[in-house]
Amino acid sequence: MSESEQPKRDYIFGPRQAFQFVGKHRFGDEWEAKYIEDPVKSQHKTVLAELRDALRSGEVAAQWDTLDFRQTGDLRPLDVDGEFFRFMVKEDLVFHPRLNEPVRCRISARDLGRLLKPFMEQPFSSSNRAEKECLLWLVGLFSVNDTTVPTKEALKINAMRRFSGLSARAFDRARLDAIRQTGRKDLSSAGRPKNRITT
User: Could you identify which of 23, 38, 122, 196 might form a hypothetical disulfide with 31, taking C-beta atoms 3.0 to 4.6 angstroms apart as the criterion?
Assistant: First the structure.
């Protein structure tokens, strides 16, 4: 099947468009297109995690085509949850673990927008900004897997000094979000770390 024969759906994004869409709605005016090309940036990691979570949720429809258009199908949450699934944002493709090859991908912008709506409707304030900045800081900190991070209480004290307007509840939300985005499940278990990062 040729690309021109594919069903026309006005609300379908490719991975790069979806990445840009999530980034703009997640970070507002602070989002820059250059983050798409920079996987080291915490903003890139945050958007990548949120886009993957959206597709893994089963609430956002997505379809794939092999590069030769000989095979097509729905991208299932199980596929996205696969160990080798990854967004190839620069190439505007995804790596499909079941097929073991890169494929084109179309993501429903309507579903993605609906999933992001609660976040988009939150009124912007200095406390929202502080929580967002705290999240980026924590994602960067937690992304260094070979370093033991400070205790939750020490992090909270440090964060509330760093980010004006950050509440204890906002810190807790940001910390849980950062753990989820970085996959640092070890940080949610009980126990005091042996070493501490100086910040």
Answer: 23
